[in-house]
Amino acid sequence: MSQTFDDISAQLKRRHRRSARLKWISMGALGLAGLFLVLFFADMLVKGLPAFQQAQIQVEIDYNEDAQRMGRAALDPDESRLVSRTFERLIPVALRENPKLLGTTETRWVLADSEVDQYLKGHRHKLNDDQQANVDALVEQGRAALKFNTNFFTTGDSKMPEASGILSAVMGTVMTMLVTLAISFPIGVMTAVYLEEFAPDNRLTQLIEININNLAAIPSILFGLLGLAIFINFFGVPRSTPLVGGMTLALMTLPVIIIATRTALRSVPDSIRHAAFGVGCSRWQVVRDHVLPLAMPGIMTGSIIGLAQAMGETAPLIIVGMVAFIPDVGASFTEAATVLPAQIFTWAGEPEKAFVEKTAGGILVLLTILIFLNATAVILRKKFERRW
User: Fold this and answer.
1) Which of 124, 140, 153, 190, CA to CA, is 20 to 30 A from 49?
2) What's the pLDDT at 58?
3) CB–CB of 185/256 below 8 Å?
4) Backbone angles phi, psi at 329, to 5 degrees
């Protein structure tokens, strides 16, 4: 039965309405995702920016004999309750290292207690009325203020929120990433080169390719279990070290680098290979002198993205023990260390209110690093990209 013009027009109108609904649904989903992203960044900024400021108090230090045993004795009793205990512990140490300080006085800015810091920032605190009055008096005298928190970048972890920093975690992250890069990049690139340029197309190579694609999609915590079973329990690699953490993350990064490298190699036209073969080059010379240099921008981009993904991982590193309390920077790849994501995880579980802003501040630092790495990958891709 033939359709009339009115029937066809009605069908077209229904199709247009469906297309319009799909368009608005897609735009709504995009807007909702953007809204969540904006709310996330806004929440992190509101909670994290205060971590880059820290309360300090100007006090007079009296290096007397009692201060040799108890640092609190060197401070005014009303002010000593407002000063961080980490500084008070340093006074007897300073007297032991420099006996000439005994009998002298010194006026300096010192780290305030975390409750004073929270009070000056307008957050919840546990100061009593007398302590609040003392802080207010110090502020009026210009002897208490919020200053840039250099300790956050120059010290390691601490049980005292006001003295906690990310230096040891950052250095542990750097050493872990160096191990990851040293293992995953050469092995991943050479594996991809073999599979793409040299390996025959048979069932074995097809099985290997399927398993590589599957490994790129499995949960990261399984790589942590694999690292625990193989590297720690079987090979005896020291636990909680950048060495075992980097080796574990290398396992997780390998599939990403292999897939990215194969994609970059496939983007090189076959005419390049044929021309090289035509002038007498061997297959290895073709790959080494022609294919790899042209594919290197894509390889570097994929490798940077893979390392950035590994840098943000926490679960596999928790399994291999990289959540240790590390107040000092490790000197080698076989000493206990922690990484920035694990440090953030540890701070998030602390009961003190001041650790909330430390957690958000650490997240801001980690996000800045990850955004920088991804931006570097985009710039490299744009700068060296070639269209054939």
Assistant:
1) 140
2) 92
3) no
4) -75, 130
Diameter over CA atoms, the chain: 111
Rounded Cα–Cα distance for residues 121 and 162 (Å)? 13
Nearest Cα to 179, choosing from 227, 233, 234? 227
Contacts of 44 (CB under 8 A, 6+ apart): 360, 363, 364, 367
Q: Tell me: the pLDDT tens digits for 141-159?
A: 999 999 999 989 988 888 8
CA separation for the pair 321, 311 (Å, rounded): 16
Report d(CA 291, CA 339) in Å as an integer: 37
C-alpha span between 258 and 201 (Å, rounded) = 17
Report DSSP state, residue 232: I
User: With contact defined as beta carbons under 8 Å apart, do 326 and 168 qualify?
Assistant: yes
Sign of CA pseudo-dihedral 289, 292, 293, 294: positive
Q: Rounded to two decimals, what is the model's pTM?
A: 0.85
CB atoms within 10 A of CB 102: 12
Q: Looking at per-residue confidence, does 313 or 248 come out higher?
A: 248
Radius of gyration, alpha carbons of the chain: 29
**Average pLDDT in the 247-255 region?**
92
In the block, which residue shows the tokens 């013009």? 5
Between the CA atoms of 116, 121, 123 and 128, what dihedral angle is there, to the nearest 10 degrees?
A: 30
Query: Exposed, middle or buried by CB within 10 Å (0-12, 13-18, 19+), for 336?
Result: middle
Alpha helices in 141-198 (DSSP H): 151-154, 167-193
Q: What SS3 state is found at 302?
A: helix
Give the C-alpha separation, 115 to 352, whole Å: 10
Question: What value, to the nearest 5°, has the Cα angle with vertex 209 and ends 204 and 214?
Answer: 125
Per-residue pLDDT tens for 279-304? 888 888 888 888 888 888 888 888 88
How many residues are recorded in the chain? 388
- Classified as helix, coil or strand, 325 is coil
Q: First CA to last CA across the chain, in angstroms?
A: 52
